[in-house]
Amino acid sequence: MTANGFFDEQTGQSLVKTTIVSKYFDGWTNVIVNTQKRYPHQSQQIAYIDLFAGPGHYKDGAPSTPIKILQKAIDKPDLRDRLFTVFNEMDEEHHKSLEKSIAGIPGIETLKYKPKVYNQKVDTEIFKKFDEIRLAPTLVFVDPFGYKGLSLRLVNSVLKDWACECLFFFNYLRINMGLSNPIFKEHMDAIFGKATANALRKSVVGLNPEEREKAIIGELCAAIRSYGWKYPLSFRFKNEQGSRTSHHLFFVTKDFRGYEIMKNIMAKESTGSDHGVPSYEYNQADFDPQQNLSFSSPIDDLERQLLNVYAGRTLSMRNIYEEHSVGTPYLACHYKEVLINLENNGMITARKPGGASRKKGTFADEVLVTFLNMKE
To answer: What is the 3-state secondary structure (H, E, C) of 21-75?
Structure first.
């Protein structure tokens, strides 16, 4: 599909992508606004930046991400007075369409800051601008049609400031093909960093498709963490047949709260699950009622992991969740499910701090959990 044809009709994939971004924008801005209200002497501005914004509406009339973001801001008085938006679209026709779509949103005049709509190339000058200024709390969305304009340097230039986070669409299918092609070396080096890209070119040789994807996504996450950004998270999109990966939607934050909000959103938008543990992917094959679940339950795996990692230790429910859940598919509800089972089987003890009463079978965040040392 050509870049122009992409916006003819909104697909299930694009709808899920827009839903994830707009839902996170909702949750993220709620947190920022509440924080700003507690510190009125600090800057009261919030920013949303979309570097590859598209035309605003698909030809079938469905609104794209920029329109949904602005509609959410218009609906919230606190956000109307704080949100500063920047939309960039390199295609001239789409840029004009985006301007028209934004101007036609009911209530757009109620925003304190008029949306800025640009028609510029995304290159290293963008990184330099972000590097040189101190950003207000900013959510940046990078959704290139291919991969030009996407780089770790861009992500790093955004996340350096407080409450700044980044979402980017990772075209796995094209990047996977380009990784071993010398013609695309410069682009691959920009995305992964030169050292990581060189190591990947060697390590993926001979790997089967599943192993290759795991290696590429794993190295990208490691490269992100090397900058100090502890919480990368990805949502996978499969092709129409469900036979191979087409894209990943990546989210990067340095705060566990943002990670938790997005993880719950991605979990709800997953098309599949295994014994209640979400797949964090959109796969049309999951709508087939004949899909098979694994015989080994991921919940059983989590139980074994906790018993092994925390043997002889006492931690709060919240500490266990925050410490262990990063990089796993598990949500807070899964940890509580496992802890209830372990308590019923006498493998842990649980109590509230200070001797406060607690109803057995409940695990509030502050409940202290002691794991028996089963190794002794």
So the answer is: HHHHHHHHHHHHHHHHHHCCCCCCCEEEEECCCCCCECCCCCECHHHHHHHHHHC
Cβ atoms of 43 and 94 closer than 8 Å: no
Whether 354 is covered by a domain: the verdict is: yes
Is the model's pTM score more than 0.90? yes
How many domains is the chain built from? 2
Residue found by looking up tokens 């500490």 in the block: 319
Identify whether residues 171 and 118 lie together within a single domain.
yes
CATH of the domain at 39: 3.40.50.150
pLDDT digits 0-9 by tens, 164-207:
999 999 999 999 999 989 998 988 988 888 889 999 999 999 99
Q: Are residues 303 and 232 in the same domain?
A: no
Tell me which residue range forms the domain holding 137: 8-287
Q: Are strands 277-278 and 273-274 parallel, antiparallel or unpaired?
A: antiparallel
pLDDT digit string, tens, across residues 213-266: 999 999 999 999 988 999 999 999 998 888 899 999 999 999 999 999 999 999
DSSP 117-160: EE----SHHHHHHHHHSPPPSEEEEE--SSSTT--HHHHHHHHT
